[in-house]
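Entry 14. Structure prediction run on the chain below.
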Amino acid sequence: MTSTSQAAAAGADTPGPEDAGLSSTRVAKKDELAGRSPGRLMWTRFKRDRTGVISACIVLAFFLIAALAPVIAKLYGKDPYTRYGQLRPDLLNENFYPVKPNGGMDGEFWFGLEPGLGRDVFTQLLYGIRTSLSLAVIITLLSVVTAIVIGVVGGYFGGKVDYFLGRFTDLMMSFPNQLFFVAFTPVVAALLVDPRDEMPTWLRACVLIYVMWLLGWMTLARLLRGQTLSLREREFIEAARVAGTPPGRIVRKELLPNLVTPILVQATYMLPNSVTAIAGLSFLGVGLPEPTPDWGRMFATGAEIYQSDITYMFFPGGAMVIFILAFNLLGDSVRDAFDPKSGR
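Output returned:
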């Protein structure tokens, strides 16, 4: 081989400046990824998911609207309780339907008027979102905490503790929650309320929260129990036991951080399910009483008058569909972001 060919071969084997730059860039990216915490990696994957980001923005907008409902209503100049159609005869006709087309929508009443009572639909929708989300958040938090306690304790300790907690979970799952609530509400009213009086709104809300919490934690508890049974045999749990770490600290420091993914994902599914359940109970007439604004009761009213004024059902129906769809898509995106094998 000549000296020229030897030099060419050596040049081919030696990386050039461009190859060295690419290699250093790749190494820097690997080092950057290796130095990130699991939370930062999850956040990075989540930001790449456009569907998840848009869903999160929609969900956040609903919560902001619920929190700022009184402020928005004050700026708007209306409230959900005043019967504008009865105070002003020019707004409703002789059949108590809005005189103006499209349910009475105009510059004064943006979403129209409620047939019959003539209340403002826009402020009813605002306060209905506030009512439904407030109850759903409380129910979801109580259900998640209960599921964590029962599922993790049963899965970690096993034996008789797991057996009795498992049988208790099976027993609670045998109750149909909505039918149980329909039957339970009259009993509470008979025990705590004078027959001549109506059940107060706060008491009806407490009963609603209690029953839906009591019958809403079992699915997550069984899921967490299975995850805990798998985790307690791992090396880091065994090492903590050998080191003499108390069981409470093992649960807090070792198990719970590894259960964040199923807890968050299931919570994002439980909250919209609670919203639909609350609306369904109000639709059946056992939810929050009048005049508390509520999505379910708006559906019930819309079902009665849809042939004459279909516009009234459009706004609560559309708001509920958008909210539940966004929350379910958010749950899928959170699950994919926590999954390191996700292809997104």
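Residues 121-157 form the longest helix (37 residues).
Filed with the rest of this week's runs.
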